[in-house]
Design a protein that fits this description.
86 residues; mainly alpha; 5 helices; rod-shaped
């Protein structure tokens, strides 16, 4: 009987320490969602748009509303007008 309890305790400790893979999956999904949330900011800084800071602020503060995320993405993806050189 004590062997059975010891076996169950070992299995519980093993599941707690190593997990069953759910933690790894949860972290991976969290990282993917984090990156997806900041796609407008990544696009803005990659394309060097003039209002990258504004895109970051809108994305950070209003991105969770989906409308804010779409606005930030539109700002990041808009075409850049050529700068006049004098």
């Amino acid at each position: 009987m004590s062997q059975l309890k010891s076996s169950e305790a070992n299995r519980l400790v093993e599941a707690t320490v190593f997990g069953d893979g759910a933690t790894v999956i949860a972290v991976a999904v969290g990282v993917i969602l984090f990156i997806a949330y900041f796609v407008p900011t990544i696009v803005a800084f990659t394309r060097n748009v003039p209002n990258s800071g504004s895109v970051l602020v809108i994305n950070l503060l209003l991105g969770w509303t989906l409308i804010g995320w779409i606005v930030a993405l539109a700002m990041a993806a808009r075409s850049q007008s050529p700068r006049a050189t004098e």
